[in-house]
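$ ./design --mode recover --in tokens.txt
reading tokens...
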């Protein structure tokens, strides 16, 4: 059965359609072409025409023309629309015109870097010219690095390598910095929050060095569809960036289906698990030979689904290579092997976290299933775009979980389809981040008094602060580096944690091997002692977690459960920045501690018991906003009722806050305390879930009335009687009065924030 036939079968399936809340068909769009701009080198044109590219898509032609004009621009078009041509043609043209020209390509992941180098290398080979294209990352052998520094026309790397290995050693890269013509940054929508704020400062350092060496590079950026591509590109580069956002690439017919699992307990509003429904739908595609990608929200979900689907297609001798898992933590060689197998059509289904959301070439798949809402409209379309051929039919099924945000999206499809994708937010002037990169930049080059660092304000005062801390030394009007350490080594661009933990398989003591790695922040949740670690469907038990050595030791086991840890969070006040009678925002310290884990049966998801976790707590400084309930209002209610109502409000705010703040559900966290230590009152707290914050809490503070109004609307409009996962949370969590109390407390908070007595 082909995909078109399967779609007809699904439409006729009453049981399936009873769970469908929305089915949208996006019709195929023909290609829109434009001729090659006149200045494109004839050799490039000839090579592309040999590959069947007689004309360019309109957005490609515009990009090539703007590059020739010297404009900085960002290309915003869907997945598989040929964005790479928008920068490869100008870069190759510049090098053919002047062999001394250099280009620097930045990609957020090693996988993307390797992918793009392969495509560029193919073009260079066909051109039969001496244009040296190299990948420079952590896997590059030391023996090759000198040749790359000296002779690389196109250096392909990632922000982490640029930050820690290229900029601090710029004297070894003189040819690159003296002749840098283009800086290409792909997938800029990935640079948000901490990562984006760090990259903006890395680029400030890069441009400072370019100015020192006398080059003035041009920016070409690419992005998936987001609401503010020009603004984001401007915040990253510090320049005015023009936008190309009309795609000329053809698209096939796409079916987008919103699927809400059936209710199994009407009174409590409990639905079948998204995981089990995703497994059943994926199995249906797999049995019909439909090449599919299945996205899951967590590493655990990826491994549970991979194990189930592998068992479905296992042959008599146990082979199940037609189904593969893909996530962070796999070794690079393993990930490259999976990507190659996908491109070659040797895999029928791949189960992935959002690691395959970015533009890695994985070939043309027919269907995409998302187990739970990805968190943003932009990510949903990006994941959906991994399936679909330019001239064929594709199917995307979004399977909603019981999470409140999922239920809102799945039951309000007009919100999803009418909204533009979210704004990407970052804060390059986050004090923690800015100071760290000022140190790095001062290590690279001395700072002169009055010298600018991008668009940052108060640079001289921060340099004076670093002087007082004996990190810098001032001689005349110049600050010099005076500390002994290497500042770049202290900064992780992606998280607040610097070290990754190595995962060592000790099943065979004679052949101990590394099977993966994990960031320090995630380790307490997934690698605590006695945790079940899942890898490509196989189960391992964590025997030992060595925090000092940053290693976890695991042993192969065969059990019918997986583990899931509970995270406890507490907050303390550091500073108040702005305050109203019943609301405020400022800086807080978030302390996280994992105390227990639960065992969950694979097939049913039922709990099989609990176990203790003994690990140190972790701290994070960030920004928050909070709402308080006056003591006289709180005194009217019993403590249990008050707690249930506040829990209900915090649950519903998890639905509405990402929608208005235009961020992922992972970017903000919401907590409540019946008696908060720093207000001494019942308090609801929303904070940026990243060190230093990126401005989300402040934005929430300014629009708190809107958030509260929408929260009340969601609760009142929900059909449940006493609470459910779609609004305030299940009755078992919030109590029998939880829904009613949430409405009462929201009314009070709205009245108080309107300034009413």
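writing sequence...
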């Amino acid at each position: 059965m082909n995909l078109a036939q399967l779609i007809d079968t699904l439409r006729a399936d009453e049981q399936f359609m009873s769970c469908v809340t929305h089915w949208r068909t996006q019709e195929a769009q023909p290609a829109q072409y434009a001729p090659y701009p006149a200045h494109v080198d004839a050799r490039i044109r000839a090579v592309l025409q040999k590959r069947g590219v007689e004309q360019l898509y309109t957005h490609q032609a515009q990009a090539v023309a703007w590059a020739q004009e010297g404009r900085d621009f960002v290309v915003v078009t869907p997945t598989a629309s040929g964005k790479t041509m928008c920068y490869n043609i100008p870069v190759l043209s510049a090098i053919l015109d002047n062999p001394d020209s250099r280009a620097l390509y930045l990609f957020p992941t090693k996988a993307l870097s390797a992918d793009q180098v392969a495509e560029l290398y193919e073009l260079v080979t066909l051109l039969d010219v001496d244009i040296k294209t190299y990948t420079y990352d952590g896997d590059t052998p030391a023996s090759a690095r000198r040749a790359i520094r000296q002779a690389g026309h196109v250096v392909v790397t990632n922000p982490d390598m640029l930050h820690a290995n290229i900029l601090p050693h710029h004297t070894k890269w003189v040819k690159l910095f003296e002749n840098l013509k283009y800086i290409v940054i792909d997938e800029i929508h990935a640079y948000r929050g901490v990562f984006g704020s760090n990259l903006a400062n890395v680029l400030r350092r890069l441009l400072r060095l370019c100015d020192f060496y006398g080059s003035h590079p041009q920016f070409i950026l690419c992005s998936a569809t987001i609401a503010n591509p020009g603004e984001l590109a401007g915040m990253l580069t510090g320049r005015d960036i023009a936008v190309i956002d009309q795609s000329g690439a053809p698209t096939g017919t796409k079916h987008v289906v919103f699927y809400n699992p059936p209710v199994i307990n009407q009174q409590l509003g409990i639905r079948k698990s998204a995981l089990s429904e995703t497994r059943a739908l994926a199995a249906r595609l797999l049995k019909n030979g439909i090449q599919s990608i299945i996205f899951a929200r967590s590493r655990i979900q990826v491994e549970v689904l991979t194990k189930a689907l592998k068992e479905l297609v296992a042959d008599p001798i146990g082979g199940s290579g037609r189904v593969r898992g893909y996530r962070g933590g796999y070794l690079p060689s393993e990930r490259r092997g999976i990507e190659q197998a996908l491109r070659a059509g040797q895999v029928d289904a791949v189960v992935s976290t959002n690691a395959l959301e970015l533009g890695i070439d994985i070939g043309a798949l027919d269907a995409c299933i998302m187990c739970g809402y990805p968190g943003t409209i932009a990510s949903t379309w990006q994941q959906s775009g991994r399936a679909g051929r330019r001239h064929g039919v594709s199917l995307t099924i979004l399977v909603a979980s019981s999470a409140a945000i999922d239920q809102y999206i799945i039951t309000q499809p007009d919100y999803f389809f009418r909204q533009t994708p979210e704004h990407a937010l970052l804060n390059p002037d986050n004090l923690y981040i800015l100071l760290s990169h000022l140190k790095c930049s001062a290590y690279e080059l001395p700072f002169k008094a009055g010298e600018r660092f991008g668009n940052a304000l108060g640079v001289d005062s921060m340099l004076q602060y670093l002087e007082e801390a004996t990190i810098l030394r001032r001689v005349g009007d110049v600050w010099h580096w005076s500390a002994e350490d290497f500042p770049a080594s202290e900064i992780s661009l992606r998280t607040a944690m610097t070290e990754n933990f190595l995962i060592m398989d000790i099943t065979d003591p004679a052949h101990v091997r590394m099977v993966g790695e994990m960031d320090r922040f995630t380790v307490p949740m997934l690698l605590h002692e006695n945790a079940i670690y899942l890898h490509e469907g196989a189960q391992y038990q964590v025997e030992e977690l060595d925090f000092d050595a940053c290693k976890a030791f695991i042993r192969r086991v065969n059990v019918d459960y997986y583990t899931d840890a509970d995270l406890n969070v507490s907050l303390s006040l550091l500073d108040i920045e702005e305050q109203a009678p019943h609301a405020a925002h400022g800086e807080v310290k978030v302390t996280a501690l994992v105390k227990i884990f639960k065992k969950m049966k694979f097939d049913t998801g039922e709990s099989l018991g609990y176990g203790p976790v003994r690990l140190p707590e972790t701290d994070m400084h960030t920004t928050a906003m909070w709402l308080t309930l006056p003591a006289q209002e709180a005194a009217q209610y019993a403590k249990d009722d008050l707690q249930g109502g506040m829990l209900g409000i915090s649950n519903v705010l998890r639905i509405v806050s990402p929608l208005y703040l235009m961020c992922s559900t992972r970017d903000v966290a919401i907590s409540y305390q019946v008696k908060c230590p720093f207000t001494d009152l019942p308090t609801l707290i929303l904070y940026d879930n990243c060190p230093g914050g990126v401005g989300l809490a402040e934005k929430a503070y300014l629009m708190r009335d809107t958030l509260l109004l929408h929260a009340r609307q969601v609760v009142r409009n929900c059909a449940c009687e006493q609470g459910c996962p779609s609004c305030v949370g299940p009755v078992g969590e919030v109590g029998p009065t939880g829904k009613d109390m949430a409405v009462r407390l929201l009314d009070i908070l709205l009245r108080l924030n309107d300034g009413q007595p």
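exit 0
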